[in-house]
UniProtKB/TrEMBL annotation:
Organism: Dichomitus squalens
Protein name: F-box domain-containing protein
Comp. bias (Polar residues): 1-10
Stretches for region Disordered: 1-21
Length: 253
């Protein structure tokens, strides 16, 4: 899976774009359609396509906006430094915030004290007004993290989430699609709160999700003492589509 990166700052810098407005004899619409062909989603776009989009952003002003829209439409973050750089780019170029529609957290540092997901709602708070899809993917086939650098971060056996993670994530009111793959939660309640914190969530896809323990359940999924399940507020009220695959929700560990 490839993505846009924050390392090529030239494609984001208005001053370095070619000053000529008529760099091509073709109509702008034709050029924009060609640029759009380089954006086929993070699972299909290659590094070569991303580099081509960076180059297109530097051709002329007429190409810059379309190229940036494609570059930032879907962004993949592999670790905490990448998240911090991405946040800094959005701070320095606020117009790019409207271009981001999908964010994927992908990497081997999810099960560490430096997990980028835990800090994502804080680092990107009020910076992604058009975010629609959030994807969390654990790198590798095993359930255990890659070895962390000694003395820097601590490796864990599960995805660590701050106790106020739900509160900060709820600020992303435009997210309608959540994907979670190959992730182990410490508690099933962490997964439930993550789902319930997205008010506009309409599509939830989980594959290879495990929970190590049940944990304290949110009030709106906890049965009352008389056994009647009548929460004051419904759980994920706008969620019409749910797909599950290889999900252990009975907490075998």
């Amino acid at each position: 899976m490839e993505s846009s990166t924050v390392s090529s700052k030239s494609a984001m810098d208005d001053d370095r774009a070619h000053p000529k407005h008529n760099a091509s004899r073709f109509p702008v619409e034709v050029c924009e359609n060609i640029i759009d062909m380089l954006q086929l989603g993070p699972r299909r776009r290659t590094n070569k396509d991303s580099r081509a989009l960076h180059h297109c952003a530097l051709v002329c002003r007429a190409w810059r906006v379309r190229s940036q829209r494609n570059l930032f439409y879907s962004f993949v973050l592999h670790d905490l430094p990448a998240l911090q750089k991405f946040s800094a780019v959005l701070d320095n170029r606020p117009h790019l915030c409207d271009y981001v529609h999908e964010v994927t957290i992908l990497g081997g540092t999810l099960y560490t004290t430096a997990s980028p997901l835990s800090l994502l709602p804080i680092a990107l708070r009020e910076k992604l007004p058009r975010l629609q899809k959030l994807t969390v993917v654990r790198k590798g086939d095993g359930w255990y993290p890659e070895t962390a650098k000694p003395g820097t971060v601590k490796s864990l056996r599960y995805l660590p989430l701050h106790h106020r993670f739900k509160l900060f994530l709820s600020a992303f009111t435009t997210v309608s699609h959540l994907n979670i793959f190959n992730v182990t939660f410490r508690y099933f309640s962490d997964l439930a709160r993550m789902i319930n914190s997205l008010p506009a969530l309409r599509i939830l896809i989980c594959g290879g999700v495990r929970c190590m323990a049940l944990g304290p359940m949110p009030l709106n999924v906890k049965p009352r003492a008389d056994g009647i399940h009548t929460p004051a507020l419904p759980f994920a009220p706008n969620l019409p589509e749910l797909r599950l695959g290889c999900v252990d929700i009975y907490c075998t560990q």
